[in-house]
Write a structure and sequence with these properties.
By secondary structure, this protein is of the alpha/beta class. It has a single domain, classed as Rossmann fold, CATH 3.40.50. The chain has 9 helices and 9 strands. Strands 5-4-3-6-7-9-8 form a 7-stranded mixed sheet. It has a two-stranded antiparallel sheet with strand order 1-2. Strand 6, helix 6 and strand 7 form a beta-alpha-beta unit. The longest helix has 14 residues. It starts with a helix and ends in a 10-residue tail after the last helix. The structure holds S-adenosylmethionine. The site of S-adenosylmethionine (SAM) has 21 residues, from helix 2.
Length: 269
Amino acid sequence: MIRRLFYKKRKFFDDDFDWDNYTADSYHRRLKGDVETNYRTISKAGQLQFDAATGVVTSIGDPIHPNQHLILEAIGQLAPESVHEVGCGAGDYLANAATLFPDLTVTGGDRGTTQLDLALHRHPQLAGKVGVQDITMPFSRHWPRADLVFTKAVIMHIHTAVSHFVALTNLVRSARKYVLLAENQQCHNFVRDILALHEAGHFEWDDLHLYQFDASTGSPGILLSREELDLPPLTSDAQIRANVKPSLRRLRRSDDDSARALFGFSKSG
Ligand SMILES: C[S@@+](CC[C@H](N)C(=O)[O-])C[C@H]1O[C@@H](n2cnc3c(N)ncnc32)[C@H](O)[C@@H]1O
């Protein structure tokens, strides 16, 4: 508890949480207390509808979280055959995606075994589809690859050394077509860091197109695509932060994190 009080003051060279104790320390309480009191987290067949003409997901009955709209609408509009979620936590996003899009192949990874236990407890149908994965480790050929790889509230919490750069690079390498980031846009200079990684040759993809993908609820996502899409190009962090109240603490930490990158060898060199 005392450590949590000092969290806002300390210099940020650590991730935001101790992931080994995260389920009991924080996640389970927040899921029950904050999320499930306001939103339906697990949807059964028929409770969600996707309208292909408008690209909008509608919830029948209780509302779903704006980030659920973001992920599900991206899946509906981009129509991948497979999705992989990194940092899948309780597994609700994957389970709901599989319910809404029954032909979709879903997999998920998380570094927390207690998080994966929670996911399997809530969604026994995910057995065999989720597994241990630390996205800041060197890339593993055993990790699932998918057309669309997404994260929600994962990379924003990673601040150890250059780990978030490694994570972004691994996400791109895991994705055949798209990476979608549903993250707090002030917790890293996502656009600056992604463009710098691409420019410096760290991404497996030759071509990168960066877009802002807005859910019907207004929730903004960062979409990396191998191919050009008919979406608003994303060129700066200021653009995706346009409607949020600045947090100087977060923005300063983002700059500290970005400054840790070391790039060299130009393309022609
Ligand atoms: C804030 S929770 C979000 C969970 C889930 N995406 C959601 O929105 O409910 C962050 C999740 O990322 C996982 N995580 C943290 N660092 C990770 C890493 N390096 N690789 C994979 N998962 C990680 C944590 O264990 C946790 O489940």
